Amino acid sequence: MEDVCNTILESLQYPSDSDPIHECGTAATSLVSRRPHDLIRLAHDKIHSFPFSNVPVCWRRLYTDASIAKAILAIRSHLANAHESASKDNEWMTDIVKILDMALIMAGAPLRQSMVEDLIAALQKHSSPERLSKRRRVEDSFPICELSAPDIRFPIPSHSRISMSEFEKHLKDPSPLIIQNALTHWPALHERPWKSPAYFMEKTFGGRRLIPVEIGRSYTDEGWGQSIITFKDFMQKYLLNEGQAEKTGYLAQHDLFSQIPSLRNDISIPDYCYTSPPPPPAGTPQADKDIPHLAEPLLNAWFGPAGTISPLHTDPYHNILCQVVGKKYVRLYNPHESEKLYPRGVEDGGIDMGNTSQVDVEAVKQEGVPGTQFPLFREATYVETILSEGECVYIPVGWWHYVRSLTVSFSVSFWWN
Description:
Blueprint: H1 2-13, H2 26-29, H3 36-47, H4 57-81, H5 92-107, H6 113-126, H7 134-138, E1 158-160, H8 164-170, E2 177-180, H9 197-203, E3 210-215, E4 225-230, H10 231-240, E5 249-254, H11 256-259, H12 261-264, E6 298-304, E7 309-313, E8 318-325, E9 328-333, H13 338-341, E10 346-347, E11 351-352, H14 361-367, E12 383-387, E13 392-395, E14 400-405, E15 409-416
Parallel strand pairs: 1-2
Antiparallel strand pairs: 2-13, 3-4, 3-5, 5-6, 6-15, 7-14, 8-13, 8-15, 9-12, 9-14, 10-11
């Protein structure tokens, strides 16, 4: 542990000449190992004074290096005083993991992701094994609670393990497609099962790893918010004690796999994501937008209890949504139906919500279509499916989609263009 700390701290003290951290000024960089807490506060204020996409990299770098230095100083302090502590558990590590995960979540840890992972791995190696309660060791699965599934009236066409050449032909006139048997080789479905709470506890350092969680039914609802909590708290409050939390908690659209690379090893990018799909159809909302080219597919995790909702919206990339745990109801609308779906437009604060519909699909399903407020919605045609474990759904760019989990569910989305 001490050797790892010494090596990393030396790297922090001598950044390369081309490192963007130098743009923060010598006064700041010279204090990384002496006053990391003050530098974290400074960088935090700078990061929050810009939209995240416009934050100068130097402040993200400073936040990251100061966080790593603060964690190392805390580790050294504990090791120096360990003989005086009567505690035999690993709780002293929780605060250190929090510091490091905040660097990953808040700043992205540019140029330092592997360094953060090395520190966390060293901490895990230094810790003693931890286990779930006896009850959870016996019942190592998520609660069986399945919401009633709607009747499928307009099914999405399905294909069993479509070949690359067949998929490329399909892309000439892209439409939604269910792909069967494309994930059979994923360890997440077999020897490293994501349906096991104990496995996630192991991969998240006894549940200490932090994750951003959406609190509330949908991001379009009043009272919706976000919170950064430990993986353990997320599972215990929202998954293992399903139905007892006042609000829904959802790990949604988070790049969990760059934060915890060992989970990335449990899955693989579908070969279909290395095709060259067409741009958004002319005359549709995404057609006139300047969407950057992706060098590699974007991966995001979607993990939550039954009842989580992604409201009716559209994305600027082609998407293959893979279901690893549980079931989801998925409804898709052609982009040419956009006018009937009542896009939101620019809202308070200048936020462009034009990719999200004003229509609450769940309320419509329960109460019937509100004929006066959204009269054209009843005319919009759609296709739908119940997406089960091991299945994928291809969602072409620009297609509107509404998604609702019917059980505890873990999905992975792969965006590409």
